[in-house]
Specification:
Strand order of the largest sheet: 1-2
Order of helices and strands: HHHHHHHHHEE
Low-confidence stretches: none
CATH topology of the largest domain: Non-ribosomal Peptide Synthetase Peptidyl Carrier Protein, Chain A
CATH architecture of the largest domain: Orthogonal Bundle
Helix content: 55-70%
CATH class of the largest domain: Mainly Alpha
Largest sheet: 2 strands, antiparallel
Radius of gyration: 26 Å
Oligomer: single chain
Number of strands: 2
């Protein structure tokens, strides 16, 4: 980001003048960052390289790193979680992780679900996009809900064979 800002300033006419570029930076900083920069001891920053080093050193700990496909691959369907619940949670996490290619999203979903039938179907008819994946998932979720008993107050147990059992007693 620092390099892009400097390039933009140079294209705007501040060619090679680091002091002019640093003055321009003040216009784009948050109040906290601007106050920090203005209160630095005199002669601590002589050029752009100094500014980047000192700025990154001060604010590195406050930076929230955007997620990546590795983070998405850790999203697993929980025991007792319906396919629809998992799909919602997975989709929410996808929206928080920008720029992940469709094939990585599909792979992460398939490796994270516990629905063997869904995985088998996706193996036969491989979706090419996340939209295609979610269409298949939505259809499977409807089917799952159709066969799930409507048992209010029931407790959901997952048998060791992966069979879901509902009962009124724990």
């Amino acid at each position: 980001m620092a390099g892009r800002f400097r390039l933009a300033c140079q294209l705007g006419g501040a060619r090679g003048d680091d002091r002019a570029i640093i003055r321009q930076l003040l216009l784009f900083l948050s109040d906290t960052a601007r106050r920090w920069l203005e209160e630095l001891p005199t002669n601590q920053i002589h050029d752009w390289v100094d500014l980047v080093r000192v700025f990154e050193g001060n604010f590195k700990g406050t930076y929230i790193r955007p997620g990546n496909s590795w983070d998405l691959s850790k999203c697993k369907q929980k025991s007792g979680e319906t396919l629809r619940e998992y799909a919602r949670r997975f989709s929410k996490q996808c929206t928080e992780l920008p720029h992940i290619p469709d094939h990585n999203v599909i792979l992460a979903f398939v490796s994270g679900t516990t629905s063997r039938d869904l995985v088998r179907e996706l193996g036969k008819n491989c979706p090419q996009t996340v939209d295609e994946l979610m269409d298949v998932v939505a259809n499977y979720a409807v089917g799952e809900e159709a066969v799930t008993p409507q048992c209010y107050g029931c407790i959901k147990h997952v048998h060791s064979m992966g069979i879901i059992i509902y009962s009124k007693h724990p």
